[in-house]
Amino acid sequence: MNGNAPTTANGALPGGGAASGRCPAGGGAAPGSPGCPIAIDPLVGALAEETEALRTAGPLARIDLMGAEVWTVTTHAQARKLLTDTRLVKDITRWNLWRSGEIDESWPLIGMVDAGRSMFTVDGAEHRRLRVKTAQALTPRRLEGIRPVVEGIAGRLLDALEAHAARAPEEPVDLKSAFAQPLPMSVVCSLMGVDPELEPRLHQLYEAFFSMLTPQDERLAVIQELDDLYAQMVRHKTATPGDDLTSALILADEGGEPLTPEEVRGNLEAMVAAGHETTVTLILCAVRALLTHPDQLQLVLDGEVGWEAVIEETLRWESPSTHLLMRFATSDIEVEQTGVVIRTGEGVVMSYRAIGRDREQHGQDADCFDVRRPAPIRHLAFGHGPHICPGAGLSRLEALVALPALFERFPGLSPAVPVTEIRNRPVLTQNELESLPVRLR
């Protein structure tokens, strides 16, 4: 076997189509039921077909996640219930497949599930203790104080794009690498106090971490390098604190119990990872949607529809997270009106792309992008309940600055390739485009 090919936990090659699975040869079991899981394609070859298969399977579907058979939630109503169910926790030691040894560090998605101690991986009182300082730093009032930073970074990136357009007006540019990716990375690094010189290396490390084409031994080395980098940052900030969120986490003394260095590192690492990936996808998918729906773009440019509506509809329609890993049942959970019982020790994933296109919640046209949907637009792209994304406001702010500034600077922005040629990266958990080639004039 090619040593560079990604494999499942049981050694098999990934892929196989959106509705494939380990169904009995004689038939009878429906795709998405126990014993006939829907195989989630780590190479993201047919995202629309996969979403439809999950919706067809019902509110809860059984999926094969690179060799791990777990449940996934596909509807808005059930997601709201289960995201607040205290019987589902983030503690990997509650997972039956982990306890049995069927899943270990050779599993390509282990870094998303066994991610160290942070506000993203604990529950209850410990979760509140780890989250409170970050939440305080990202209130709406404090976000307004961050707005000039976002505007400054966006302005510099747009200046560089304008210089490119002046030099080579007919030459396409990749909006991802030139604008949508560096903007949120620079913003979150500024917020957390990360040295700007580290940003290019962080880009490389996260590209390798999320890609399903990265061999697992290399991914584990990437995880170790990230851990070492962030641990070094925490030591530096402990010795010389500054005006940034990492220093605030180090100095926080909530309830007489300060955060440990490991907890600060975990929060820092999680915030940088989550704080840039989501916004990259949000900006790119919003631009792609507007360029392929010029009538709606014109409504926005004419002021008849606000940019907030564009952002919320994009989050619903193309959720930045496709499959968010993972919670584990601490007892049997009988899911009302489904006939499903989530057994103790089973894993549960949230399939946010399917949830965002839930026809019961969003109507029969849920697969259509429409910025004129009646407000309020209720979606769960940033989660729900205690673990709702603490950086949701920051991501919205970045998009609210970036999108109007981009179209104001380049009103003739247009796709440089047919939209059908734009592919997703092989990232199972994120709805991440490989690139977005555009012409600026």
TrEMBL record:
Pfam families attached to this UniProt entry: p450 (PF00067)
Domain of life, source organism: Bacteria
Keyword check for Zinc: no
Keywords: Heme, Iron, Metal-binding, Monooxygenase, Oxidoreductase
Keyword Metal-binding: yes
Stated family: Belongs to the cytochrome P450 family.
Name this protein carries in UniProt: Cytochrome P450
The species this protein was found in: Streptomyces smyrnaeus
